[in-house]
Specification:
heterodimer; A: 169 residues; mainly beta; 12 strands; globular; B: 161 residues
């Protein structure tokens, strides 16, 4: 039986960092996509926001979030971006934030939903659980995914991202 | 290498209908259901298992609507509310994991994430107070409205070995 959950591509950021992580030429042969990341940016704070966008387009993106930091729970929304949370450059050494973005039916001619579960852990005084409901209001099939730090300019070395395709049959 | 994550079934609605039922669930450890679509009029997406309409379900959700957070608990109901509620033709998505669904010794747990970018994001745990193996999963609109044509429901089986 063909593999249902298959690695399409992977990125491991090398020395010098990377301003974006891009998955291009995504084949149309899967049903859903799943992106799993471990990232840290060069932003000079403990935390960072991890943006995701599609097909090189940065419009028609939005999300609602639910987040907790160990002290309080909050909910927010953004009508311009889809982002989660990850680690910035002054978080505990060697700690990277983790995220999973699940995009069902990425080739269907409907608006694209994004289910995001993202986490920033500092092992110090600040950590965040940030889940999100994202929407790219485009009926175009997704052929490219771009990850980028919101505030920082680079993903640090050793940041990783893996793109999986999930098949319904 | 053994396959651990397999597609079980998929349904893409050619016309609007109130419910989708999966009844050939195979022999896996866990099951994952992904739904992506919309209702024809505002409704609430709910689960029932094995045609059980008794008051044997409960759930505990946490909900963020973009400005406030809430949590609650509902018990002794005839359904598990996924927390997905959406108006007419509003896109939403459900991702649910049914853990250890085929055993006959424990009550059955379902973990759900629902996503409606124009309305809310939620996480919830649901419980079916029945030790029977889950043999059918029904996802339906509680008020009686329909999932719109084009809505997609996909079931995946996950094997521990």
């Amino acid at each position: 039986m063909a593999a249902t959950y298959k690695l399409i591509n992977s990125v491991i950021v090398g020395s010098g960092g990377a301003s974006t992580i891009d998955f291009t030429s995504i084949p149309s042969t899967y049903t859903d996509l799943c992106v799993k990341t471990s990232t840290r940016s060069n932003r000079s704070t403990t935390d960072e926001f991890l943006k995701i966008s599609f097909n090189g387009v940065t419009t028609n993106l939005s999300h609602r979030s639910l987040n907790g930091n160990g002290t309080s729970a909050n909910s927010g929304s953004d009508g311009s971006y889809i982002y989660g949370r990850t680690n910035g450059n002054t978080s505990t050494t060697s700690t990277f934030g983790n995220a999973e973005f699940y995009i069902p039916n990425y080739t269907a001619a409907v608006a694209k939903s994004v289910c995001g579960n993202t986490f920033m852990e500092d092992n110090a005084t600040f950590a965040v659980t940030y889940i999100l409901a994202g929407l790219w209001n485009s009926t175009a099939a997704i052929t490219q995914i771009t990850l980028a730090p919101y505030y920082g300019t680079l993903f640090n070395q050793y940041s990783t991202a893996y793109l999986y395709g999930v098949k319904k049959s | 290498m053994a396959i651990t994550y397999e597609p079980i079934a998929t349904t893409t609605l050619g016309s609007a209908q109130n419910s989708v039922t999966f009844s050939s669930l195979g022999a896996y450890t866990d099951i994952k259901l992904v739904m992506n679509g919309s209702f024809s009029s505002e409704d609430y997406a709910c689960y029932q298992f094995n045609s059980d309409t008794g008051s044997n379900y409960s759930e505990t959700p946490i909900v963020g609507n973009g400005s406030s957070v809430s949590s609650g608990r509902a018990a002794n109901r005839a359904f598990i509310f996924t927390q997905a509620v959406a108006g007419a033709s509003v896109q939403f998505m459900i991702e649910s994991n049914f853990l250890n669904y085929s055993n006959s010794t424990t009550y059955k747990t379902v973990l759900s994430r629902t996503n409606c970018a124009s309305r809310d994001v939620t996480a919830s745990v649901g419980l079916w107070r029945n030790t029977s193996a889950i043999t059918s999963i029904k996802l339906y609109g509680l008020v009686g409205n329909n999932f719109e044509a084009g809505s997609i429901f996909t079931l995946y089986g996950i094997k521990a070995v």
